[in-house]
Each structure stands twice: as C-alpha cells, then as structure tokens.
C-alpha cells in the first residue's frame, strides 16, 4: 500500500511520508502492533533518501502514532477508538436569536454576487494595485530586523505602543487635544464600534444617527439590540431641527455620526455645522460616536477638523478611525480615541474579546507610516480616486435621470432616481453584467427604494463609462 | 519660529516639515491668511533641499492646510474652529455593567506584575527564542511573491481558503471525520469561544465544565451571563458521577471541556474516558465545546484522538483549536470546526464582529505550515519544554510540600499545597522576586486557595531551580 504514495508540491518529502502513514493508521489500514517496513526498504520502495524515511518515522513517533523498538523496528502504536453512533444534534433549532439575526442581516449572503467579467460598483474596497507592495515588504523586513521574534509573541490589548503614539500624533495634526484622552487599537472600525456599543449602551437603548448611514453600522446597532433613531439628511448633512427635537424628547443615549465623506451620501459636514451639532449634543449631554470613515480621502477644499478635535478639552466624543478603508483592509487595523477612563474599560472588553489585535500587523503598519510611505500612497491614491470620482459624477449626471446625485469625495457616489425602483433596476443591470449596492440597505427604517450607491474604487475609467451607460440604458428600457 | 524645527529619526525630511507647520497652524501660531516663507527661503533657513520644502508645501495643500497661489506664494487656509466649553461627561457613571464586569474580571489589571529581574512562572506564553524567525520571514516573502498586493485587501469572514484546507487536513490526521463539517478562522481561541457562546447560549443558560478550568474561559462564560456548573477533577480527569448527575438534572445547555493538557492541571483524559464522556453527553443530547489547548505539546504516550474525532460522523462536538498557544501568539489565529450549518451562522457572527481575521497573517501562517516549518519547530519546542517540565516536576516534588503536583505535559504544572494559602505565599515570594499564578483564578466558584500554577515556558532550567527553591524556602518560613 505504500507504493500508492505520490509526492506533490513543495512540502518536504519526509512530512508527506508522515502524513500518508498517519492517514493509513487512522483509516485502520495499518492496525496497532503492525510492523512498518524498515527505513531502508521503504526508502527503496518510494525512491527517496533513507534520511527522509528516518525523519518521517521520528515525527510519527513524536506524534504518538508509532513506537520504535531498538533492534526490532517500528510498530503502529495508535489505537483508534470510535464512539458509535456519536452525538447528532439539529443545529438549526439550537442556535440563538443573535446568530439568526446576524445571518439575516448578512448582506454578503443575500445580495447579488460579483462574477468574473462583471463591472461592479458594489465595492468600496481600495484598489490593491495602488498599494505599493514593495513599501510594505520593506516595512516588514525593517521592523523584524529591529525587534525580532518577540513581535510574534503575545502583545497588549491596548495595542502596539509605537503605533498608538504615531496615531495620537497623527490625530493631533487634525487638531485633537490629547489631554485626558487615550487610544486603543482594534480589528478595524467594525470591531471598534462593537466594543464601544457594548461598553456604552444596553439592549433597548435608543441611539441617533444619520439616515441613510453606513450599512455595517446599522447591522451592528441592530445586533446590539438598540432602537435606531435615524435623522433625515438635508443638502448640507443631518437635519438639525429633527435632531434637536429627538434629543429634546429625552431617552437618547448616544449619537453615531459620519461627518466626513458620509457613507453612503459622500457629504462633508461644514465646520459651522459641526460646531452647531456639537453644541446640541452638549446641551443634552449625549455622547457622540464619530466615524472617521475615509476622512483621508478629501479631494478638494480646506481641512475640516473632526468633531473630537472641535470639542477641544471635552471628553464627550469617541472617535473611531481606520486606515483599513483605504489602506490594507486585509490587516484589520483601526483605533478608538476617547476619554482615558473609557478607554481603560474598553481595554478590558477588548482583552476579553480576542486578547489583542495582531502585533506583527500593527508593527509593520507603524513602520510603513513612520517611513512616510502612507503620505506617498495617499497622494497617488487621491489622484486616481479623484479622477474616477469626477468621472462617475460627470457621467451619472449625463446618463442617469436622477433627482439628486450626492458625493463630495470618498470612494463612492449616491444616486437618487426619479421614480425608478433601484432593486428592479439592479436585477436588469445584473443581466447586463453591471452591479451596484441598492440604497435601501443604508436606511434605518425603510426608504431608499429609489437610491443606489456606486463605488468607484474597483473600476477603471473605461468600466465606469461602460457601466454608467448600461445603467442609463436599462432605465430607459424600464420607462 | 521655523528655526525651532529639529529633524530626528528616519522619517522623511519633507514630512517632518509638513508635520511641524501643521502643528503651528493648529496651535494658532500661523493664522489663516498668513503667507508662508517662499520654498527657497525656508530651504535656506532649515538647511534642507528646496525640493523637500516644495514637497512639504504640496502635502500641506493636499491636506487642506495651505493654499498655493500662482506667483504669489503659499497662504495658511485652515480656519481653526473651537467649540467651547465642549461636551464633558462622567464616563465612570455611564459605562455598562458589561464593561464594568470585563474590567473587574481582567486579571491583567489586578494580579502582581512581573518586573525586570524577576523569575516569573506566571506566563504560559511560548518562548520566542524558539520561534525560528527566518522561517517566518521566508514564509512572508514566498507568500507575497505568489499572491502580491491582493493579500492586503479585504478577505473572507470564514478565512483564507488554503489555511482552512490545510487545517482540515491537519485535523483529519488527528482522526477527524470531515463529513458535514466546516471550519472558520478566528482571532485565536478567545474569539472562537466568544463567537460559539454567542451563537449557542443565552444569558442565564447553564454550562458545565471542569473545575478548575482555563481562567480566560471562566471570564468569557461569566461575561456571557452564563451560570457555570464546575465539575470537580479526579486523578484521571473530570468526575464522571458528578457530571452524570448534573446532566440528568436537566437544563444544561452545553459542556466546555479541555481533554488534553487540561489548563491548569495538565491532565490528559484517557481514550476510554473520552468515549465514556461522549456517551454521557450523547445520552442527554448536550453539545460539547472542546478546547484543543496545547494538544500539540504531548511529551510522551500514544496519540489520543480529540473528542470531535472520536464522535465520528456525529456533529455534536465543536472543536476550538489554536496554534497561538505554542506558535506566534502575536498573530492571533485560531479556528472552530463543527457542523457546517453551525459554522455558517458563526461566519455571519464573525463578519459582524470584525469582518475577518488578518489575511496576511493567515497567508503567512499557511505558507509556514505548508513548508513543514511547524513540524520542525515543534520537534525543537517539545524537547526544550519537556526538559523544563520534567525539571519543574522533579524540583517541585523535592522542595515544595504539596498534597499533589499535577502535570502530564504542556507548559505548566499545578501544585496543591498542604495547608498553605497560595496568595499569602505569593506575596512573600514576590518580595524575593518569584512570581506564579495563584490557583483560585481557575476555580468556577471558590476553591483553589492552596493551589498555584507554575508556567515553565518563559524560564530556563537555572531559573526553574532558583525559583522553586525560593518557593520552598518561603513555605518553610511561613510554617
């Protein structure tokens, strides 16, 4: 039976021999007590070096599958014990409502899927061809040369110290007053938002947010059992009157806001409006969770300070940031900045969730940032994305009959159609290999049936043109 | 004021100039409308190349802090808007009971801390000097050469395909029957256990486990609001009679078991006992969550199949595995194997928690495993840890008056003292620079006052001898 062993790939020969013999033992083809061929015999049979077989036998003995007896040879020592019939459960009936809701709200499982050859405006993930892999490799090698294997051991729940310090400086350069504040590294925005909600709100609590808003945030708020109070968006952002009325009514425990390049509308809240919003939340003593989403992707205009910077020495804003939206999302690195006492609680919550975020990843990212590679990347990325964004806005205006096309920056535009259902349209576009994100998933409580989001990060100028023309044609056909 | 700029470190000069000018603008030292020095002037003043200043000004303009007017120069454009007095909240009064409990159960914040020069038996983290950094670097470079920048973009909630396949094979080599089962990658055991509990149990549900057991598991079960039913340990593992009685009483929703190198006792449950335990859980139709903790660290004896393997085609065992306990804990990679339908729910729960586990980390680990580096590492690590383990057992028997010293493998031994309080002893040992983990943290409902765990992974043979002698001397002094 050994002669059936075929070697493949680059896995070492002796390990392939080990794996094969283990499989035969586990399958009962080699019973306990059976003597294996001598290392010389097996080496000849398999046409490999005797050393390979000796190594394989050593590993099998280390793993407790065979026993080497001096002068007598190798014997199978593993006794397979099978329990029959085994525990069989009906999991569909056993999972919690929480798991069921997570599955029900999982758009990855429900929305139409991209297939090869399609033009997809669905994604707002960055374009990996812009990443500059060499800079990443350099950062990896430099950091490991400096710190060695200890980077691979356990780290700290709050994060890798140098990365935390770098990001605090980075945020100070956006106007953050660091007094009394602290930072924690998370597995991206998603985890940061989950941790903050678990430390701040109870099931049944009410939270206010823009409507529409980031669909993942809606999912997380729903899973946390919160009652979501969406406030409609005006031309210049969240409707102040409605917000005031809601807060005045009492019982709102927190606000969730995306002041810059709001997802999905792409709006940037003006500095004046930011100050006004801060004042309203201050009047009602309600904390703000600020999503720093794509803040780096401003294509024009003056720098606008985030709410946490505008609130100066105040401690009522919790800022969740992430480079992952534009840089290396595969790494899953984000951060939370807020009052130091709150961060200390969050640190314990994070430790209980998953000990800490990958330390090698944090260290490599730090090296990458410190070396100035991020600024260089951003310059290039802004240029490419701005071109695509401008192109999409221009063509959408030309080909798509819309009541409004939103978008001041970021990786997407948001289209409100005149009387066309976006899901009906999507089904037709899909037949013509064009895909986008239907607008209704961004609404907290119905609405958005006529809207959709066009992500521009994973399509080139030619695809943007083709895709938008298709959408326009399909709309014409529908009318 | 520009002359105060001092360059440091390896961060590019132009970015240091940019950072500095930003800081001055944010501090109000450069007011909106102020003209900056010409690039030539500033270059001379700072003794840097003019190109560095030009780049710095370009980045400042990109970031929206200055405006370049053709033929006129660069002007500060950022208008600082400060909101006064800002939102100030009393976070101590606002955080949830969940966050409070996480902080209260956070032993990192409460237990005595290691300081330089101390001999610490507290840790069971692996010894990074065994890691073989070159193999890790090679794996990084090989994987990125093959797959490039796409490894840095978003991945999939379930995990990196090749790693999942590799681990399924690896588990098949421990006897797993893969039919109807699936796998998901998590951020280590801790996250895996959290996700499984959230999908399987409600607050107030009862769960049965060994007593003592893994302290992090106790924390997680407490945070999930579960009622923990600890079953005492006998010489050969969990007390079968007590377990039967508990399950017969009804209302137990799941079991959590560590069959191999049980933490903290180090016991390995015999194959016969495993079959018996499986039968009991089958009789009462209660699922088992199996912690594959340190299963790789067997130092002697035959291979013992995990419960999930013994249950054959059954789907009632959920196996949580992790290499992180012995290899690269900084990467945070673990896995859950169980019924495919359950894994599908867990996939959605994982996506809502943090999208996915770091893809570069998963890809590097896959390459490392595939190349056979893990087996080579394990051979070396087993040898070193076995030596330390044997040494610790021998010396503990010699110097520590104990009613029992537990430990068949793994990275620790567990000592039950005869009438000495382990925390009193710890306080005295700490004065003599010796540290260990008090036993009470491993008990579900009081107990363990006279026990402690000695981790042997981060101490060499000399330190083990010195440390254990100190413990012995301190005990003598206390009596």
Provide an overview of this structure.
The structure is a homodimer of 479-residue chains. Chain A is an alpha/beta fold. Chain A folds into 3 domains: 2-76, Orthogonal Bundle (Arc Repressor Mutant, subunit A); 111-129 and 376-478, Aspartate Aminotransferase, domain 1, CATH 3.90.1150.10; 131-371, Type I PLP-dependent aspartate aminotransferase-like (Major domain) (Aspartate Aminotransferase, domain 2). Chain A is 43% helix and 15% strand. The first copy, chain A, has 18 helices and 16 strands. The first copy, chain A, has helices at 13-26, 39-46, 50-62, 91-94, 97-104, 107-110, 133-147, 161-172, 188-200, 215-223, 240-248, 271-283, 307-310, 340-354, 359-370, 373-399, 422-431, 461-478; strands spanning 66-69, 73-76, 119-120, 181-186, 206-211, 227-234, 237-238, 252-257, 288-291, 317-322, 334-339, 402-406, 412-417, 434-435, 437-438, 451-455. In chain A, strands 4-11-10-9-8-5-6-7 form an 8-stranded mixed β-sheet, with helices on both faces. A 4-stranded antiparallel β-sheet of chain A has the order 12-13-16-15, covered by helices on one side. In chain A, strands 1-2 form a two-stranded antiparallel ribbon. In chain A, helix 13 links the parallel strand 9 (288-291) and strand 10 (317-322). In chain A, helix 11 (240-248) runs parallel beside helix 12. The first copy, chain A, is globular and about 90 Å long. The mean pLDDT of chain A is 92. Chains A and B meet through helix 1, helix 3, helix 4, helix 5 and helix 7 of A and helix 1, helix 3, helix 4, helix 5 and helix 7 of B.
